[in-house]
User: Fold this.
Amino acid sequence: MTGDVTLNPEAPLLIMTTEIFRNTVFEAPERFADVEYLIFDEIHYLDDRERGTVWEESLIFAPEDIRLICLSATIQNLEQFGAWIRTVRKQDLVIIHHEERPVPLHHELYHVSTGLFDLDRLSWARRKALQVQPRHRPQRGRSRQQNREDLRQARLGVHQASRRLLDELFRSGEVPVLYFCFSRRECEIKAERNAHRKLLKPNERRGMARLFDEICELFQLDWEDDTELNYIRERALLGIGFHHAGMLPIHKEIVERLFTSGMLKLLFTTETFALGINMPARTVVFDSLRKFDGVSVDYLKTRDYLQMAGRAGRQGIDDGPRRVDPRQRGPPGRPPAADLPRHARAGVEQLQPELLDADEPLRPHGRGLVRAYEKSFRYFLAQKGSQKSATRPRPRRRPGSCASSPCSRRPATSTPSRGSCRGPASRGRSTATRSRSPS
Assistant:
């Protein structure tokens, strides 16, 4: 059950989007009278800026007799989150925490001047890369044509790094490969640039053609009359595919089925392929560790990185640790390379609430807003913070410091207005910091 399609809504097992469940709870809760269990997959979406409030409302307002099963592999403050659920649900709660991954991940970086290298050799790789790094910024004293040539060579270097990395992976048999790009257009461009590769043997190519025709027959499609589908078929016969949210749903379904078959060796995709699709590969490659988050281009959250990197390694097929290869555009040691150790080795960000903090606040028929807030995760965290503050001893005021409390709470980077007090508390050092996710 989604916003577009509803199939067999009276079945004993219902699979639906969280939005459908939340809306049904408010509009027709009697439909869940016979439901015993409610399973939330990827419950960490509770802190998603756009959809998080929907998940939180669903947890709070689900019928009281329904028992919850919440699944996630990327929650750091698990005990805190479980304590909150105990306050809004009447059933006993058991937290099951498992840290061992069936197929361990091996994180590596790639640079065109060094090849693949482990994170422990980051300093060495940066020194080596800086020795051979070409100029890619306009230089004073050089003609416009010379500077233009430098920029062209820099762009070619990016594509060359991608090509050489894939060459190395294919030589060593590290396939299938999921190649994450954070641009729909870039997925198709990279699929086109790699059209020279023939990743399928003759018998595999014939098997791919048969499978593609069978899928088209199943969905009553004619690839000869569909230009886009014909293009997908041409790439699939090479063992290459692309997948992003801009494709038609039926085309995405075909690509997913082809990848499941194991005959699609190289798939260029956006992060949407990492969400809720159990199609692991042997190797995952990141085109970058930065993406547009709807407001600006910023580094991936650790949770998002691990969610996508977790596609590497096939349980029951791959015994040893599998490689994750973020491809480095600039000199190693600079972002995003310098940020990778935090992604790979540190914990994920703490789960944060979004209820009553999103663009559209909770409105269950316009009633019970205060009651809803008092059950929210945000209110729970605020109450815990207040209790800690109440029990924390108050610091002694140093001689000569001002006695007014607003001054002591002023951030160190603020500038006192004219006539304001200038005690020691207001003379903190001014600092400029880049916002980073806690880890």
Observations:
- Confidence is low (pLDDT under 50) at residues 356-366, 389-439.
- The radius of gyration is 26 Å.
- Residues 80 and 384 are 10 Å apart (CA to CA).
- The chain has 14 helices and eleven strands.
